Amino acid sequence: MTDLKLCPLCNSKAAVLIEELSCECSYEACQLHEPMSIDEWQSRPIEDALQKKLDEYEFALNNIQLKLDTARNKLANAEKVFMQLPQITITSIEDGAVLYDGNIFKYALEDIRYE
Ligand SMILES: [Zn+2]
């Protein structure tokens, strides 16, 4: 026989009665100190529904955690690639011209594209 759950009202142990066909709360002052079937005692629809919701939330949270870990790994890899890029300095020296790597590059404003 599976372990009987604790009383949902007072958290006392269940007392098994008459050849294990029924049980009741072992605390005499409890409202559930009345014989009932084992199935009835073990039935906890509200707790079961809440546990199901909790399981769903934990599953969703685990999925979010996995996505977060994946995003962190991608960011760490992107940072490694970025750190390996040569350091460059682009300086605007006048309208339509920049200094890059010691060379002057002239450009027309219509050549600039924003993406
Ligand atoms: Zn009780």
Q: How do the helices and strands line up, and which of them pair or pack?
A:
Elements: E1 14-17, E2 22-25, E3 36-37, H1 38-42, H2 45-84, E4 90-94, E5 97-100, E6 103-106
Antiparallel strand pairs: 1-2, 2-3, 4-5, 5-6
The protein binds zinc ion.
Residues 7, 9-10, 12, 25, 27, 30, 32 line the site of zinc ion.
Task: Explain how this protein is built.
The strands form 2 sheets. Strands 1-2-3 form a 3-stranded antiparallel beta sheet. Strands 4-5-6 form a 3-stranded antiparallel beta sheet, with no helix packed on it. It is built from 2 helices and 6 strands. The protein starts with 13 loop residues before the first strand and ends in a 9-residue tail after the last strand. It has helices spanning 38-42, 45-84; strands spanning 14-17, 22-25, 36-37, 90-94, 97-100, 103-106. Helix content is 39%, strand content 20%. The protein has a domain at 1-43. It has 115 residues and is of the alpha+beta class.
Average pLDDT value?
89
- The number of distinct β-strands equals 6
Would you identify the regions where 5 or more consecutive residues have pLDDT less than 50?
A: none
Main sheet record = 3 strands, antiparallel
The N- and C-terminal alpha carbons lie at a distance of 68 Å
Order of helices and strands: EEEHHEEE
Can you tell me the overall shape? rod-shaped
Secondary structural class:
alpha+beta
User: Could you tell me which ligands this complex binds, including any ions or cofactors?
Assistant: zinc ion
State the share of residues found in helices, binned by percent: 25-40%
Radius of gyration: 35 Å
**Number of separate helices:** 2
Strand order of the largest sheet: 1-2-3
Q: In what range is the share of β-strand residues?
A: 15-25%
